[in-house]
Model the fold of this input.
Amino acid sequence: MSKVTKPLRYGVILAGVYFFLAGLYVSLSTHLVSEYAPSLEAIRYFELIKGFGFVFFTAILLFWLSYSLFCRIENDGQRLLKQKEVLAEAGRRATAGVFASSVAHDSSNVLVSLRFCLELLERNQALVGANHELVETMKKAINELSGLNRRLLDSSQQGLSGDFEERDLVKEIKGTLALARANLRVKHCDLSFQGDDTLVLMMNPLLVSEMVLNLVLNAGDATQGSGRVIVKAERRGEYACLEVHDNGPGIPQEERERIFDAFFTTKEGGSGLGLLTVKACAELHGGQLQVSNSPIGGACFTIWIPLDAVEKSKWTHVVSTMQSLFF
Done:
């Protein structure tokens, strides 16, 4: 009822003000004309001028009111459209979060079996040299996956813990690249690292590893598993800049906004969650993810992470951002 009463009250007030001012104008103008007009012909002339003046004034008033009203309608329409897009995106991301949690739960069961098999292999005394190193690489990969699964399940149940610590970004990247080289998607690529020798900042090493691994594997897919992939990390001002280049076909301009949407993919068999995860991890570090053309011919994904050493409490609002992306 109040939603109807409020506009009605405003309408009555506006009409009353207009009636009062118009009546005042007519009364005063008529009195002045009758008082000072020297002849009947002059009265007609002044009445004509007065009438046109009244019409001109009301036309200006009507224009201003209608313009203000239409501008407000346009702004409200734009705001509603943006809210609709935000709600749709939130729905897609919520679905992505549920899907990711389900996959994490199911894949954890598979990893238990794989870890048991590796333990049996380690008991085999014939494993020496390269074979032993291969088993160690597999164990490291399984531990990484187990950690990621735990992170997904924990975040769906109680939110991200925000475990940030001071670590060397370059060391974490090189460790992730060593793991990535064992993956068939980049095994035959020319994968290299360029940049600073050390780059220390506050980070969550597990999430950084996930970001780098996702981008490198995507770059390997873009080059059909046999191209050139360059990972760069260097300090630029107050930011750590992480770049992943490839010499694949690149990303069309019209797709550069959509590639960060949940379930959007151009790859056959792709999940459409990889880049969404990278973007969420970057934002959790207070950073940004950008895509552009690479000098070597394909795409370049750039992550900007602030170097400021921050207290844990500063990450509270960022944790809510991460949760909104997934849950």
